[in-house]
Amino acid sequence: MTDTRMRQGRAALAFSFLVQGVAFALLVTRIPAIQDRYGISDALLPAFLAAVPVLAGVGSVVTERVVRRVAPSLVLRWAQPVVLLALLAVGVGQGMIQVALALAVFGLAVGALDASMNMLGVSLQRAYGRSIMLGFHAAYSLGGIAGASLAWLGAHGGWALGVSYAPVVGVLLPLALVGSRWYVDAAAGPAVEAGGTGSGRGVAFAVLLPFCLVMSFAYIGDSTVSNWSAKYLQDVLGSSEQTATLPYNVYMVMTLLGRTLGDLGVRRFGAAAVVRAGAVLAAAGFALVAGAPGVAAGMAGFTLLGLGLCVLVPQTFAAAGRIGFEKGGPAGSDAAVARLNVFNYVGFLVGSPLVGVIGDAWSYRGAMLVPMVLVLVTVGYARSFEGTGGRYGDGHERARAADVGRDGHRL
């Protein structure tokens, strides 16, 4: 496979991550408008919200089985349009049943999309022989910022949901379909020759357990920020309503910055060092938020959280995929990524209710200490993120040899 083909595949996959960031942000940031449009009661809303990650977990499990027969690129090629069309259906539906069906389809398709995107990302990173996974997730963060900004415009302008969603879907859907022509299933190329057994054997859950825990803890932290940062700044630290909207924006910008630079850090210092540093920064951010005497200190804490948490998820996918590949070749890598992806949704489901229950029963300052402790646990698992040779590249000399394409050029 030529270096040009690999670069095209990398760019196409990055665009897919960006589109997913836009779509997901447009959904979650307009939840109040969705609730108003369909008359969903406060009592029923949690069930609607929980259904999306639960069904996404189902979609991820199904994808693990599907990719045994078809390439992950094919799953991604069709899952992304379904996600976009389901988002549009949420905006233009006429009743409770329609929105419930649209959210169900959205959830199932998101699970397939997240799993297949990360499968392709892991296989491309393996073919490149150096860290590029954080760059894909940086594209997702950029899409999230763009989607949240578009949602703000829609809310500020008083636009109907359909009016907000239709132009975005109309632009992104054809671009995603065109871009999907350049997806690369790199696992089937030189990387297989470089080190996978190709046996397709599954990976024991005990081997994946550290990564599953890290994934869950990272998303508990992330959902804490997305669901509670505004309330915390306003109710606990006494900010204005306008100022209370800033922490999540700052968090997203820092996430984008950290992921943009993160691959360089992995190449220079190794995956374990980056994960360890990210966990320590995130824990310091939660500690600062919990003890913040005022708004400025709270904002500084959320800034640290963005820089710290942002590296954990991409590195967890990369490490689990690498171990899956060592155990069972490309099929083992895909299975490991799909199983790990389920814990993305576990953390998302647990995080917000956990903080809410502790906040109501004790205090919201105390509640911030719980995700702090969980991300600190990640430090103890940091060694699991290395290969046999210590730093990221040291244990992958055979994979680095695959950098030389069949035409003799570097990828």
TrEMBL record:
<keyword id="KW-0812">Transmembrane</keyword>
<feature type="transmembrane region" description="Helical">
    <location>
        <begin position="302"/>
        <end position="325"/>
    </location>
</feature>
<feature type="transmembrane region" description="Helical">
    <location>
        <begin position="12"/>
        <end position="31"/>
    </location>
</feature>
<keyword id="KW-1133">Transmembrane helix</keyword>
<dbReference type="InterPro" id="IPR051788">
    <property type="entry name" value="MFS_Transporter"/>
</dbReference>
<feature type="transmembrane region" description="Helical">
    <location>
        <begin position="337"/>
        <end position="358"/>
    </location>
</feature>
<dbReference type="InterPro" id="IPR036259">
    <property type="entry name" value="MFS_trans_sf"/>
</dbReference>
<feature type="transmembrane region" description="Helical">
    <location>
        <begin position="43"/>
        <end position="62"/>
    </location>
</feature>
<feature type="transmembrane region" description="Helical">
    <location>
        <begin position="132"/>
        <end position="153"/>
    </location>
</feature>
<feature type="transmembrane region" description="Helical">
    <location>
        <begin position="159"/>
        <end position="183"/>
    </location>
</feature>
<feature type="transmembrane region" description="Helical">
    <location>
        <begin position="273"/>
        <end position="296"/>
    </location>
</feature>
<feature type="transmembrane region" description="Helical">
    <location>
        <begin position="203"/>
        <end position="221"/>
    </location>
</feature>
<feature type="transmembrane region" description="Helical">
    <location>
        <begin position="74"/>
        <end position="93"/>
    </location>
</feature>
<keyword id="KW-0472">Membrane</keyword>
<protein>
    <submittedName>
        <fullName>MFS transporter</fullName>
    </submittedName>
</protein>
